[in-house]
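Sample entry (174 residues):
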Amino acid sequence: MNATPGPPVAPGTVEIAGGPKMSRSEARRLREEEEAARARSNAEAWRLGGKAKVNEEGPQEEDPKKAAERERSRSREKKETLDRLAKSAAEKAAKAAAADAESAASPEEAASAPQAPKLSKAEEAKLLMAKEKEKARLKKQAMLEAKKEEEMKKKMAILEKDLNTSEKPKYKRY
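Predicted structure, serialized as C-alpha cells:
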C-alpha cells in the first residue's frame, strides 16, 4: 500500500539522504550553516596565508609565471619605487651641490651662468601648477577683500544717511 517503508512523511518535510526527517526551513538553515562554516574555514585559511579551495575537486596546476606575479607584494613594489626615487633625488642633490661648489670657486662664471638648475618636464609642470594655484588663491583673496570693502562702504553709506536725517520722525499720511 505504502510505496516507501517507514512512517508517512508529513507535507512540508524533507528527508535528507537517509538522515532524520525535518522541515524545509530546518533543512535550509542546516545547509546555510554548512556553507557558512565552509566559507569561514576558507577565510581563515586565506588569512593564515594558505590558498582557499574554491572547488573541492583538488588542486589545479597553475602557470608558475602567474603565481610568481601574484606572490610579489605591491608594498614591495612601492618600496622599490620609493627607493629608486630617493636615489635619483640624492643624485640630483649631489650634482646641484657639486655645481654650487664649482660656481663658488669661480665667481665670474657664477655671475654669467643662470642660477636655476635644469628641471625635468614633470617638475616644471608641478612648479607651474603650484604657481597657478597660488595665483588663483591670491586672486580669490583679493576678490573677497574687495567684496568685504564694498559691503563696508554700503553699511557706512546707510549709517551716514541715518545720521544726516532729522531727528523728527516722519509719518506717512494716507
